[in-house]
Amino acid sequence: MKHLFKKLIVSALQVVAVTGLLGICSAQAQTSGNVTLNVTLTDVLALSVTDATVTLNFATATDYQNGLTVLKNNQLTVTSNKAYDLKVKANTDLTFGAATIPVSNVNVRTTTTGMGTTPTISLSTSDQSVASNATAAIAKAVSLEYSTTGNNQSFATTAGTYSTVLVYSVTAL
Fold first, then answer.
1. How far apart (Å, rounded) are the C-alpha atoms in residues 140 and 68?
2. pTM
3. Could you report the per-residue pLDDT of 43-66, keeping only the tens digit for each?
Protein backbone atom coordinates (compact mmCIF):
# COMPACT_ATOMS: atom_id res chain seq x y z
CA MET A 1 0.00 0.00 0.00
CA LYS A 2 2.84 2.20 0.78
CA HIS A 3 4.09 1.58 -2.70
CA LEU A 4 0.68 2.35 -4.20
CA PHE A 5 0.37 5.52 -2.15
CA LYS A 6 3.84 6.60 -3.36
CA LYS A 7 2.82 5.92 -6.95
CA LEU A 8 -0.31 8.00 -6.56
CA ILE A 9 1.63 10.90 -5.11
CA VAL A 10 4.20 10.73 -7.93
CA SER A 11 1.41 10.55 -10.53
CA ALA A 12 -0.38 13.49 -8.93
CA LEU A 13 2.84 15.50 -8.92
CA GLN A 14 3.42 14.63 -12.57
CA VAL A 15 -0.10 15.79 -13.47
CA VAL A 16 0.46 19.08 -11.59
CA ALA A 17 3.87 19.51 -13.24
CA VAL A 18 2.55 18.77 -16.73
CA THR A 19 -0.47 21.06 -16.21
CA GLY A 20 1.84 23.83 -15.01
CA LEU A 21 4.15 23.36 -17.97
CA LEU A 22 1.25 23.42 -20.38
CA GLY A 23 0.01 26.63 -18.81
CA ILE A 24 3.41 28.21 -19.21
CA CYS A 25 4.07 26.81 -22.65
CA SER A 26 0.58 26.99 -24.05
CA ALA A 27 0.29 28.60 -27.53
CA GLN A 28 -0.97 32.21 -27.49
CA ALA A 29 -2.86 33.80 -30.44
CA GLN A 30 -1.10 36.86 -31.91
CA THR A 31 -2.94 40.03 -30.86
CA SER A 32 -1.06 42.72 -32.86
CA GLY A 33 0.53 43.30 -36.25
CA ASN A 34 2.45 46.00 -38.06
CA VAL A 35 1.35 47.95 -41.14
CA THR A 36 3.55 50.40 -43.07
CA LEU A 37 1.75 53.61 -44.00
CA ASN A 38 3.23 55.63 -46.85
CA VAL A 39 2.13 59.17 -47.74
CA THR A 40 3.57 60.31 -51.07
CA LEU A 41 3.58 64.04 -51.75
CA THR A 42 4.03 65.41 -55.22
CA ASP A 43 4.89 69.07 -55.67
CA VAL A 44 1.80 71.07 -56.56
CA LEU A 45 1.58 74.61 -57.83
CA ALA A 46 -1.75 75.84 -59.13
CA LEU A 47 -3.42 79.19 -59.74
CA SER A 48 -6.98 79.81 -60.79
CA VAL A 49 -8.82 83.03 -61.51
CA THR A 50 -12.22 83.31 -59.83
CA ASP A 51 -13.09 86.80 -61.11
CA ALA A 52 -11.66 87.61 -64.54
CA THR A 53 -12.77 91.24 -64.92
CA VAL A 54 -11.61 94.42 -63.21
CA THR A 55 -13.26 97.74 -64.13
CA LEU A 56 -12.00 101.12 -63.00
CA ASN A 57 -14.86 103.43 -64.00
CA PHE A 58 -14.02 107.14 -64.19
CA ALA A 59 -17.57 108.50 -64.07
CA THR A 60 -17.26 111.85 -62.25
CA ALA A 61 -14.87 114.76 -61.89
CA THR A 62 -14.14 113.48 -58.36
CA ASP A 63 -12.98 110.15 -59.80
CA TYR A 64 -10.41 111.96 -61.96
CA GLN A 65 -9.37 114.26 -59.11
CA ASN A 66 -9.02 111.60 -56.39
CA GLY A 67 -8.23 108.49 -58.38
CA LEU A 68 -10.04 105.17 -58.07
CA THR A 69 -9.62 102.04 -55.97
CA VAL A 70 -11.36 98.73 -56.64
CA LEU A 71 -11.01 95.73 -54.32
CA LYS A 72 -11.50 92.30 -55.90
CA ASN A 73 -12.07 89.90 -53.01
CA ASN A 74 -10.83 86.35 -53.59
CA GLN A 75 -9.94 87.09 -57.20
CA LEU A 76 -7.34 84.31 -57.34
CA THR A 77 -6.92 80.94 -55.67
CA VAL A 78 -3.43 79.51 -55.16
CA THR A 79 -2.42 76.04 -54.02
CA SER A 80 1.25 75.29 -53.40
CA ASN A 81 3.00 72.87 -51.08
CA LYS A 82 6.05 75.18 -51.09
CA ALA A 83 6.61 78.89 -50.58
CA TYR A 84 5.98 80.79 -53.81
CA ASP A 85 6.05 84.15 -55.59
CA LEU A 86 2.91 85.61 -57.18
CA LYS A 87 3.63 87.72 -60.26
CA VAL A 88 1.62 89.78 -62.71
CA LYS A 89 2.26 91.34 -66.10
CA ALA A 90 0.10 93.07 -68.69
CA ASN A 91 0.12 91.82 -72.26
CA THR A 92 0.05 95.42 -73.56
CA ASP A 93 -0.58 98.97 -72.45
CA LEU A 94 -4.24 99.95 -72.06
CA THR A 95 -5.73 100.37 -75.54
CA PHE A 96 -8.93 101.73 -77.05
CA GLY A 97 -8.76 101.57 -80.82
CA ALA A 98 -5.55 103.42 -81.74
CA ALA A 99 -5.42 105.31 -78.39
CA THR A 100 -3.25 104.01 -75.56
CA ILE A 101 -2.65 104.75 -71.89
CA PRO A 102 0.50 103.33 -70.28
CA VAL A 103 -0.58 100.41 -68.05
CA SER A 104 1.87 101.70 -65.42
CA ASN A 105 -0.83 104.23 -64.45
CA VAL A 106 -2.68 101.41 -62.66
CA ASN A 107 -1.36 99.97 -59.39
CA VAL A 108 -2.09 96.59 -57.85
CA ARG A 109 -1.44 95.03 -54.47
CA THR A 110 -2.69 92.06 -52.51
CA THR A 111 -4.70 92.67 -49.35
CA THR A 112 -4.43 89.03 -48.23
CA THR A 113 -2.42 88.18 -45.12
CA GLY A 114 0.20 85.44 -45.13
CA MET A 115 1.49 86.38 -48.57
CA GLY A 116 5.06 87.31 -47.62
CA THR A 117 6.30 90.64 -48.96
CA THR A 118 3.43 92.47 -50.67
CA PRO A 119 4.35 95.80 -52.24
CA THR A 120 2.04 98.04 -54.23
CA ILE A 121 3.30 97.83 -57.80
CA SER A 122 2.65 99.78 -60.98
CA LEU A 123 1.52 97.38 -63.65
CA SER A 124 3.98 96.68 -66.44
CA THR A 125 4.40 94.50 -69.51
CA SER A 126 7.16 92.71 -67.55
CA ASP A 127 6.62 90.28 -64.68
CA GLN A 128 6.48 91.97 -61.28
CA SER A 129 6.03 90.38 -57.87
CA VAL A 130 2.73 91.11 -56.19
CA ALA A 131 3.79 88.76 -53.36
CA SER A 132 7.24 87.37 -52.64
CA ASN A 133 7.90 84.33 -50.46
CA ALA A 134 4.23 83.60 -49.81
CA THR A 135 3.63 80.72 -47.40
CA ALA A 136 2.64 77.31 -48.77
CA ALA A 137 -1.13 76.93 -48.66
CA ILE A 138 -4.03 74.88 -49.96
CA ALA A 139 -6.71 76.82 -51.87
CA LYS A 140 -5.48 80.22 -50.61
CA ALA A 141 -7.96 82.91 -51.65
CA VAL A 142 -6.06 86.00 -52.81
CA SER A 143 -7.74 89.41 -52.83
CA LEU A 144 -6.31 92.16 -55.03
CA GLU A 145 -6.74 95.92 -54.94
CA TYR A 146 -6.41 97.97 -58.13
CA SER A 147 -5.92 101.74 -57.91
CA THR A 148 -4.98 104.92 -59.74
CA THR A 149 -3.60 108.17 -58.41
CA GLY A 150 -5.59 111.40 -58.47
CA ASN A 151 -5.02 114.18 -61.01
CA ASN A 152 -3.27 111.77 -63.38
CA GLN A 153 -3.01 113.48 -66.78
CA SER A 154 -2.71 110.11 -68.55
CA PHE A 155 -6.45 109.68 -68.06
CA ALA A 156 -7.25 113.08 -69.60
CA THR A 157 -7.74 111.60 -73.06
CA THR A 158 -10.37 110.22 -75.43
CA ALA A 159 -13.36 108.65 -73.65
CA GLY A 160 -13.78 104.89 -74.09
CA THR A 161 -13.02 101.56 -72.47
CA TYR A 162 -9.26 100.99 -72.48
CA SER A 163 -8.27 97.35 -71.98
CA THR A 164 -5.42 94.93 -71.58
CA VAL A 165 -5.06 91.37 -70.35
CA LEU A 166 -3.28 90.75 -67.05
CA VAL A 167 -1.41 87.47 -66.66
CA TYR A 168 -0.93 86.23 -63.10
CA SER A 169 1.54 83.45 -62.43
CA VAL A 170 3.02 81.59 -59.46
CA THR A 171 6.56 80.32 -59.14
CA ALA A 172 7.65 77.85 -56.44
CA LEU A 173 10.68 78.82 -54.41
1. 26
2. 0.81
3. 999 999 999 999 999 999 999 999
